[in-house]
Known about the structure:
Blueprint: H1 2-27, H2 33-36, E1 45-49, E2 54-57, H3 60-67, H4 71-81, E3 95-101, E4 113-119, E5 125-134, E6 137-140, E7 146-147, E8 152-153, E9 155-161, E10 179-185, H5 186-189, E11 202-206, H6 225-228, E12 233-237, E13 254-257, E14 260-263, E15 267-271, E16 282-285, E17 291-299, E18 303-308, H7 311-319
Antiparallel strand pairs: 1-2, 1-10, 3-13, 4-5, 4-9, 5-6, 6-11, 7-8, 10-11, 12-13, 12-16, 14-15, 15-18, 16-17, 17-18
Amino acid sequence: xxxxxxxxxxxxxxxxxxxxxxxxxxxxxxxxxxxxxxxxxxxxxxxxxxxxxxxxxxxxxxxxxxxxxxxxxxxxxxxxxxxxxxxxxxxxxxxxxxxxxxxxxxxxxxxxxxxxxxxxxxxxxxxxxxxxxxxxxxxxxxxxxxxxxxxxxxxxxxxxxxxxxxxxxxxxxxxxxxxxxxxxxxxxxxxxxxxxxxxxxxxxxxxxxxxxxxxxxxxxxxxxxxxxxxxxxxxxxxxxxxxxxxxxxxxxxxxxxxxxxxxxxxxxxxxxxxxxxxxxxxxxxxxxxxxxxxxxxxxxxxxxxxxxxxxxxxxxxxxxx
Length: 321
């Protein structure tokens, strides 16, 4: 009788342990490793020239010193680097279970969001999202410009600001814009972990200016992780996941987002209806329409991963206005 009791007790204990493991695994987000990584000391910023095919490292310290002498830098940089936490509005409509189609992409801020189209090494058309952050600048995810299978940049890369699918020719503000230069982190190109997106960002210098056609987004960084947690955000992009009713190729702009839930020094998690195609799209603070991150990955459509805007990104943007 005692032996039987011990066996039953052992089975119950093992079952409870197994159940706890299952619960833990369900709660664990595979992208949470991104929140624990600090990249500030290791990051090297690279500049790729599309026309010449050459790459060089950017001396960020020298660039920063040069920018300090410019009045417009000090004024704008002070504003960008001192974002304060605000109280979430009670009027905010939560969209963590859905994504809403943007009805008019010709008005701000939707006309600043871009559909990306490029060709990979297999001659497949790849799409994603980006946003305008300067007269000739766009910001996106690095994997939207980089073909990881060949370790080369995508071919025939184009962005379409304020793109809207139609049987008619696209509007003048959706004229495709090509690449002139790309700024990125060397750590991303050398990354071998498929779940590590901490430096998955790229700032693209465009071949043509959108000055006079489209106003650009401002970007924002935060002093501390706690200042960023719980802020309400909107995420814009061109989702293409046909399983959830979106058009193949990301042909319409949608918005989603709710609030930022967990924050690391380089990345953060947020609630929203997240699917493929939002990649590279802006994560925008609802209080002022500033970009605070870039959407780079998602899990189970409910959790989005964003890369934080950093001081290095801000300095590159300011230096290329």
